[in-house]
Amino acid sequence: MTLEDAVKETKAYYCLECGKCSGLCPVSRYNPAYSPRVMVEDALLGLEDDLVHNRQLFSCLTCYACSPKCPADVDYPLFMQKSRALAAKDGQQGDCAHSGVLQSLMRLMASPNLKQKRLEWLSNGHRTSDQSNVLYFVGCAPYFDPIFEDTGVKSLDVARDSLKILNSLGIAPKVLPNERCCGHDLLWTGDTENFRRLAELNAAAIKEAGVKKIIFSCAECYRTFKKDYPNYVKIDCELQHISEFLSEKIEKGELSFKEIKKKLTYHDPCRLGRHLGIYEPPRRVIESIPGIELVEMKDNRAESLCCGTSAFTNCDSCSKQIRVERLLQAKATGAESIITCCPKCQIHFRCAMVNKGEVKGPDVEIEVVDLVSLVAQALGGKSSE
Amino acid sequence: MAEAEFEPQIVAFTCNWCSYAAADLAGTSRVSYPPNVRLIRVMCSGMVDPIFVLKSFEKGFDGVLIAGCHIGDCHYISGNIKAEERIGKLKSLIHTLGLGDERLRLEWISTAEGGKFAETIKELVGQLKQLGPSPLRKEVRA
Amino acid sequence: MEIKTGVYICHCGINIANTVDVEHLVEAAKGWDTVAVAREYKFLCSDPGQEIIKKDIKELGLNRVVVASCSPRMHERTFRNACQQAGLNPYLFEMANIREHCSWVHSDKELATKKAEALLRAAVRRVFYHEPLETKESPVSPNTLIVGGGIAGIQAALEIADSEHKVYLVERDPSIGGHMTQLDKTFPTLDCSQCILTPKMALVGSHPYIELMTYSEVEEVSGFVGSFKVKIRKKARYVDEDKCTGCGLCQEKCPWKVDSEYNAGLGKRKAIYTPFPQAVPNIPVIDKEHCAYFLKGTCRACEKFCDIKAINFEQVDQIVEVGVGSIILTTGYDVFNPSAIAQYGYGKYDNVITGLEFERMSSATGPTGGEIRLKDGRQPKSVAIIHCVGSRDKNYHEYCSRVCCMYGLKFSHLIKEKIPDADVYQMYIDMRCFGEGYEEFYKRLCEEGVNFIRGKVARVTDRAISDEEKGKLIVQCEDTLLASLMRVPVDMVILCVALEARADAERVARMFNISRRADGFFLERHVKLDPVATPTDGVFIAGCCQAPKDIPDTVAQASAAAARALAVISKGKVILEASVATVNEALCQGCGRCEELCEFHAPKVSRKNGQLPVSTINEALCKGCGACAVFCPTGAISVKHFTRDQILAEVEALIEV
Fold first, then answer.
1. pTM score, two decimals?
2. How near does any CA of chain B get to the CA of A134, in Å?
3. Mean pLDDT across the stretch C43-53?
4. What is the pLDDT of residues C359-418, one digit of tens each?
5. C592 and chain A: CB distance < 8 Å anywhere?
6. Can you tell me the distance from the alpha carbon of B14 to that of B52, in angstroms, rounded to the nearest whole number?
7. Which residues of B touch C107 (CB under 8 A)?
8. B42 close to B14: Cβ distance less than 8 angstroms
């Protein structure tokens, strides 16, 4: 792939240089050095070297705040993805947060000989079945919790709660003992080689499993399987995000909840929202729980603000400011908690609340809960058993 | 690599004040140990970033040793305590990856313990031989 | 800029060359990226060896140098100097240890050569990422601040002042002297505490190099070793220090009496007072809390009788700012309040007293003129001395207070001396007589007819169960050597109370950026090898603020602290570590994890210009340990000369060979 291919494929050729994208970009708002328009301009002028060595190349959140409104219909996030692949060939990878530990784990998982022990969190209370037609795709939760311990993130609770919900609907799904990272972060930071390996390993494992349907609780995994895997591998299954699945069940009257008296707001993860257009199913699920008052933040649905970081790269002061802005929006609604459908949004929000220094940032403390944990709670019993 | 006995490759991150000096002492006192280990000098075991360890496995090392001052003797007061906590979490990641957390070892070796340094290496080499090559190794070598 | 690396491999005579194929290394290195020249030499550390490197730097324009030889702990400095002499920044040098870590520990030549090649390659790859660093110097103020005017502070102040360097001695009480002035005689030599202390106090008072600031407290400390800025509050004495002659008339005329702190509450002082007759300075203060003028607006008796008009009711607190190079903390200890142990009856029974109260009673300058008396004025005929009150007890303090055994023994002697027919009992767990002449003192006491009972006292009661016990205090304990329960009726009980950290130790520790142990005392840098320094450079500790100790140990530690402060002064400059942490402000989110975990208080999160706070590293405080860099979630912090790129380059290179 060349820069020219990238420009063609993403329709960057048609860029009018109108600057609307920069005006819409949440990053540009806090980081004036960053402009999507200038990035495209560099590419159109053939300044490949400038483009791939620009630190800002990795600042784009690929949140799709710009593209849907671009008068020339340029797919800017995809243009970033392709440009980063060029940069990665040159050894560029942006400023990896957490010293690059997450990217390293993903690359490690791309090794075919690995035999992971990623299901040790399963307890006797969880019913899974090797015979099932339905696969629950766990995602990277087993790796997140030790890394983000100091922020209080419990990603595995999302997996436990998902199983609890499926079990209560009479589904004992299959889970893959050697599931790999979906590769989302590697793809979006330009490591297409390892992304391909991960996709192939997952595709092979799923084929072997012989399932008909895959349910995801992670917005990123879902997007990657749905939109990116088809370019690399063949997955012959129905794919569904758990919010869609639950929404269906509720409509059919197969699910009923006990009352939870709470005022909540919902944060649309970019991958579920603008990337895939799924705005209403999670809201329907939340609103079907008796007692819950769902209030909307100033920016919601297609206008939703990103959680501020993507692919654990270039997580800088600009990221924090976006996050703070989003959390202040949530607090302004008077809600007790933010509900989200993406474990990474949860991680980033919680991280932004860690203020240990003497000079505290603004008060952004608010509970962050994954949709499935809320649902599990509404089903009764203890959450995350 | 022929099917001769597998020789594990080990990288050791050793703190400047204790363990690196212990390895020096092993040298000065001619205490021999297997040549499978290669040392990287850091100022403190608390300086060892998790990425150093993961990258070592990524690159195909079969084992990683982190060695620092005994608890209470840290030149920076509590660097080794921080290292201990961190290595604990890192071990759980390595375990989940299925690499076997024995591949990552933390040891306190003081300046005076040249012998202990050599013993640790011998022991680790033996252990890794039993465990076999890292699943990431062949691929890197291929 | 093109990187040109010079690679030099040392034979070290036969030390390396016998086991490692040096020629092979040279040939291999020549083929690597960035390597401009690779050479071998018999002894690179020799002058001609260094010359080769220097010549190459100049003639070939090398901008990186790698030497493969012995341990950097041996010769890193040698080669860094050589680079510097040739005009190359010494941090653009790297060493591969192929002797201690290779040729000396392996015998198989092929494998040793392979390993040496890997180590050399790692050094070459690492040095590619090196950056020139500058060591900075910072000037040193020749002044020293000493906080606390007990024997430790006095000793340290005199040591430093005698070498003609200025000392600011800050004491919170109206006089220096500390606890030692309250003691009667001191173990094991039984010399009078005041007799040995007051000459030193007088020297302090008149020393041209000591600026004595009594009735003063440190309010704020900033800066770092060599240049601390200290704000000191001089509390208003309401007496003009320049005018007062210390005649004492004001104290005589003052009609208001208050319990004397100096006499541990056993005697009275006036509202205007000097704590004791030999106070230094001999200038009284008005105790605002008890002065009738301040409370009711009338009296001013002191003012009326002061001919030289030294009384000044209008005085206000003053804030004095001083600059010092080092700080010595000698803030001493508090005594444990035994009323917490209800079963010992302190505060309930008149004749249960603490060791410090006994000291005052026994002292010739004390409220009874040295007579040992019960509350009703009678002479006690039997006394029990209870050890380990609040010490060696998990309910109170787990540690041993170190001085109680000895002062307990001393009390026995003093009682026997003054009341020869008195029965004296020592109830102890273990006799710890570890110092010079201490065991001998114990032996001597054993011969003086003191009763030793090994057992921790269970309770002190006045409930008599026999006629013999009537009107007495009964001490109940088990004599564990006889395995028999005892009831010992006595007239007086002395509690050997624990020494504990000052009640405000936490505040003081925070102010001076030092740490405390779990027991509350100040934490030394290293318990064995650096017991005087703290993790904060330039802040030293001595005496009981570090841990309970006796006078000889306190004096020795104070002198050691003085020597450390003088060493800073005599060097005249502080060389700052070049390999320190640095913050990439664009990546910093100001979360403050670094600030929270740094043992040296180097990172500080502050609001600079941007919207969010960011962390800044104080290079003078940073030791370059890297803890913050590892914890930094965004990767904003890195340690110079130990960057991720540098270490990861080594990792990659080490597996390639």
1. 0.80
2. 24
3. 97
4. 999 999 999 999 999 999 999 999 999 999 999 999 999 999 999 999 999 999 999 999
5. yes
6. 12
7. 32
8. yes
